[in-house]
Design brief:
The complex is a heterodimer of chains A (359) and B (293).
Chain A lengths: L3 E9 L5 E10 L4 E5 L6 H9 L6 E6 L2 E2 L10 E4 L11 H11 L4 H15 L14 H14 L4 E5 L7 H18 L2 E6 L2 H7 L2 E6 L2 E6 L1 H6 L4 H6 L6 E9 L2 E4 L4 E3 L12 E6 L5 E3 L8 E9 L3 E8 L2 E8 L8 E5 L5 E4 L11
Chain B lengths: L10 H28 L2 E3 L6 E3 L3 H7 L2 H33 L5 H9 L6 H11 L6 H8 L10 H29 L3 H9 L4 H31 L1 H7 L11 H11 L3 H30 L2
The chains are: A alpha+beta (359), B mainly alpha (293).
C-alpha cells in the first residue's frame, strides 16, 4: 500500500501533440480514485504513465516515497487490469494468476496460498484449470482482477475494465469492485468514461478534459458544486440545462425573455449587470403552481417515461430545457411555470466556463 | 465461432466445388495415379518394350545403398533448411515488429527474396561462392579455408542449404510478422507489469502464442525442402559432388530424366510421396495437439 503523487506530469507525443498537459494530483494511501472524462481526454495515457507503459515527457510520478519516472513497470509494484483483460490465452486460469508471482520467484507454497485465496474471494475456484477462452466475459474479468490481487501490489490500476461487459454484469462487477476495495483497502486508480461508475466507485473523482484536470473532489462535491460548465454537463443524466442570462440584482438572474431565477448570493460571486451562463439540473427544476409574470415558463412537447420519473423536453426562455418530475403526476399542462431552489442554480462565466461559486 | 453456409439442395454446393475438384484431379490425382502405375512397369534398355513387373522396381530400390544415402542427405538437408529458415525468419520478424525508423523499408526488402525463382537464387549463390571468381569464396580463402563446393561434399551441402534457406526466410518472416501483429499489445504489457523481462516474455508469452503459426510454417517448410528446392540443387550443384547433395526429389529427376529409368524413378516418387504424406500426418497428429490454446 502506498500513495501515488503526480507532480506537473506531461505527455507530449512525437508529433507535438500534448495528450496530458501538466497534471498535479495526490492519491492518498488506500484511496479509490476515478479518472473520469470523455475519450481523448488523456485519462488512459495518464494511467499508462503511472504504470510505466508510457514515457513521462516531464514532471514526476512517485509511488510511496519513491520517484518512479525511470523505473520499469515490473519494478513499480503496481498491478493493472486491462480493458480487454489481457489474459494469457495459452495458460490456465491458475497459471495466469501465478505467472507474476513465479516471475518474482515467490515460493511455491506461497503462490498456491495466494491464488487459492484470491480464487475464493472472486468465486472462480471451479475454473482454475480452464483456459480463458472457456470463460464468460464476467469470469475473465474476475480472473484479470485475481491476477492483480495475488500480487499484493502497492497500487491497483484499472483501465476501463467494465466497458466490455454487458449492462447487467457491469452493475454487478461495479459493486464487487467496490466491496473488494472496502476489504483490501488498496490504493486504486480507475479510468472510465462512465459517470455512474465514477460516482459509485470513487472516494475521489478526477474529471479530466483536454489533458487537464477540470475538477477533483468527492462524487457529491462534483455533482453538487461543479467547478465548470464542462463538469456540470458531463456529470448527471440527463445533462444540466444551460442558458444565458444577466445578473439583475443580488441573488437574482434574468433570462433572455426577461423572466427571473433566484440564486444564492452568499455562495456565488456575481455582480449585477454581469453576463452569465445559468445552469439548472433537470431534477432540481420544479413545476410550480401560481407563479408570477417573472417566473420562467417551460413549453414542452415531448415526454420520456423512465418508470419512476418522467422527463419533459421543451424550451424555456428560448433554449432547450429538460425537466424531471415524478411519474405519478397526471398529465401536466403544456405550459409550466418552473422554479428551482436558490442553492440549485449554478452560474458560470460564459468566457472561461468556470463556476462563479466562491472558494 | 462456427460459420457455415446453408444450401437448399445438393446441386449448387457440388457444382461450386467442381472447378477446384477438377483442377486437383487433373494436376494431382491423375499424375499421382500415373506415377503409381508407372512404378509397376519396367522398360528394356532401349525403351522399346514395357513389361508389368509388380513390385520389382521397389525391391531394386530397397536393395540400392545409394538410395539410402539419398534419404540421409535429404534428412540432413531438410532439417537444416527448415530449422534455419524458421529460426532466422522468427528472429527477423521479432526485430521488425519493434517500432523502429525505416521499418517499412526493412520489411519490404526482407520479402524480396521470395519473389526470386529458385534457379535464379541458386545461380546467385553459385556466383558468390564460385571457388575461383566468387567474392565470398575469395574471402573464405583469405581466411585460410580451402573452400571448394565443386570437390568438397560438405561445402556443396552448405552452399545449397544457404541458398534454400535464404529463399525461404522471406516466407517465414512474413507469417511470423503477421502472427506477432495478432498478439494483443496489452497481453505483452500485462506480462511486463507481471515482472517478466523481455527474454522471458518472449519464451513464456510470445513464442507459445506464435506456435500455431510456427506449426503451419513447419508443415509448409517441410514440403518446400522436399520438393521446391529442386531448382536450387539443379542449378548450384547438379546433385554433386559424388551425389553428396542429391536429395530424393533430385534423384527422381536424375534417374528418370537423365537415366531414363522411368519405372525406377516412378517408384522413387511414390516413396517420396508416401514419406511426405506420412510426415505431414505425424505433424498434425502429434505437434498440432500441443500448439492449440
Amino acid at each position: 500500500m502506498a500513495s501515488v503523487i503526480l507532480d506537473k506530469v506531461k505527455k507530449v507525443y512525437a508529433g507535438g501533440v500534448e495528450a496530458v498537459k501538466g497534471i498535479t494530483l495526490t492519491i492518498p494511501n488506500g484511496n479509490f480514485t476515478v479518472l473520469l472524462g470523455p475519450s481523448g481526454c488523456g485519462k488512459s495515457t495518464l494511467l499508462r504513465m503511472i504504470a510505466g507503459l508510457e514515457h513521462i515527457s516531464s514532471g514526476t510520478i512517485a509511488i510511496g516515497d519513491r520517484t518512479v519516472n525511470d523505473v520499469e513497470p515490473a519494478e513499480r509494484d503496481i498491478a493493472m487490469v486491462f480493458q480487454n483483460y489481457a489474459l494469457y490465452p495459452h495458460m490456465s486460469v491458475y497459471d495466469n494468476m501465478a505467472y507474476g508471482l513465479r516471475n518474482r520467484k515467490t515460493p511455491q507454497a506461497e503462490i498456491e496460498r495466494r491464488v487459492a485465496e484470491a480464487a475464493r474471494m472472486l468465486a472462480i475456484e471451479p475454473y482454475l484449470q480452464r483456459k480463458p477462452r472457456a470463460l464468460s466475459g464476467g469470469q475473465r474479468q474476475r480472473v484479470a482482477m485475481g491476477r492483480a490481487i495475488v500480487r499484493e501490489p502497492a497500487a491497483f490500476l484499472f483501465d476501463e475494465p467494465l466497458s466490455n461487459l454487458d449492462a447487467k454484469l457491469r452493475v454487478q462487477m461495479r459493486l464487487e469492485i467496490r466491496k473488494l476495495h472496502n476489504r483490501l483497502k488498496a490504493t486504486s486508480i480507475f479510468v472510465t468514461h462512465d459517470q455512474v461508475e465514477a460516482m459509485t466507485l470513487a472516494d475521489q473523482v478526477v474529471v479530466m478534459n483536454g489533458g487537464q484536470i477540470e475538477q477533483t473532489g468527492t462524487p457529491l462535491e462534483i455533482y453538487r458544486r461543479p467547478a465548470s460548465k464542462f463538469v456540470a454537463t458531463f456529470i448527471g443524466s440527463p445533462a444540466m440545462n444551460l442558458f444565458s442570462g444577466t445578473v439583475a440584482a443580488p441573488g437574482q438572474v434574468a433570462l433572455a425573455d426577461g423572466t427571473k431565477l433566484a440564486f444564492d448570493a452568499a455562495s456565488i460571486d456575481a455582480k449585477p449587470g454581469m453576463k452569465v451562463d445559468v445552469g439548472v439540473r433537470p431534477e432540481d427544476a420544479k413545476a410550480e403552481t401560481g407563479g408570477s409574470r417573472e417566473t420562467p415558463v417551460l413549453k414542452w412537447d415531448v415526454t420520456e417515461e423512465l418508470g419512476a420519473t418522467r422527463l419533459l423536453h421543451g424550451t424555456l426562455a428560448g433554449e432547450p430545457f429538460v425537466l424531471a418530475m415524478p411519474a405519478d403526476v397526471t398529465s401536466p399542462a403544456k405550459e409550466l411555470a418552473v422554479g428551482a431552489v436558490a442553492g440549485a442554480v449554478h452560474l458560470f462565466d460564459p468566457g472561461t466556463g468556470r463556476s462563479l461559486r466562491r472558494g | 465461432m462456427e460459420r457455415r453456409a446453408l444450401f437448399g439442395g445438393k446441386l449448387l454446393p457440388y457444382s461450386l466445388l467442381l472447378p477446384q475438384f477438377a483442377i486437383v484431379v487433373v494436376f494431382f490425382y491423375f499424375p499421382a495415379a500415373q506415377a503409381v502405375w508407372q512404378s509397376l512397369l519396367m522398360q528394356d534398355a532401349f525403351g522399346i518394350s514395357t513389361e508389368f513387373v509388380w513390385f520389382e522396381n521397389y525391391s531394386i530400390l530397397a536393395s540400392n545403398p545409394e538410395y539410402y544415402k539419398t534419404m540421409g542427405t535429404t534428412a540432413v538437408f531438410s532439417a537444416l533448411v527448415a530449422f534455419l529458415s524458421l529460426a532466422i525468419g522468427l528472429l527477423l520478424a521479432v526485430m521488425a515488429d519493434k517500432q523502429i525508423k525505416g521499418a517499412t523499408i526493412y520489411k519490404t526488402m526482407l520479402i524480396w527474396p521470395y519473389a526470386v525463382a529458385p534457379a535464379v537464387a541458386g545461380v546467385l549463390w553459385l556466383f558468390m561462392f564460385q571457388p575461383s571468381l566468387g567474392m565470398l569464396a575469395k574471402m573464405l580463402r583469405g581466411w585460410g579455408i580451402d573452400w571448394n563446393p565443386l570437390l568438397n561434399g560438405n561445402h556443396a551441402m552448405i552452399l545449397v542449404v544457404l541458398a534454400a534457406t535464404w529463399k525461404q526466410i522471406s516466407y517465414n518472416f512474413l507469417f511470423f510478422l503477421a502472427g506477432l501483429a495478432a498478439i494483443p499489445k496489452s497481453v505483452i504489457e500485462a506480462a511486463a507489469i507481471d515482472g517478466a523481462r523481455p527474454l522471458r516474455r518472449f519464451w513464456t508469452i510470445v513464442f507459445p502464442l506464435l506456435s500455431p503459426t510456427a506449426f503451419f510454417l513447419l508443415v509448409v517448410n517441410i514440403v518446400y525442402v522436399f520438393f521446391d528446392t529442386f531448382g536450387i540443387i539443379d542449378s548450384v550443384t547438379g546433385g554433386g559432388p559424388a551425389g553428396n547433395t542429391t536429395t530424393m526429389v533430385y534423384k527422381v529427376y536424375a534417374d528418370g530424366k537423365l537415366g531414363s529409368d522411368l519405372g525406377g524413378s516412378a517408384a522413387q516418387s511414390v516413396v517420396l510421396m508416401v514419406i511426405v504424406i506420412a510426415l505431414t500426418a505425424i505433424q498434425f497428429k502429434f505437434v498440432e495437439r500441443k500448439v492449440q490454446y
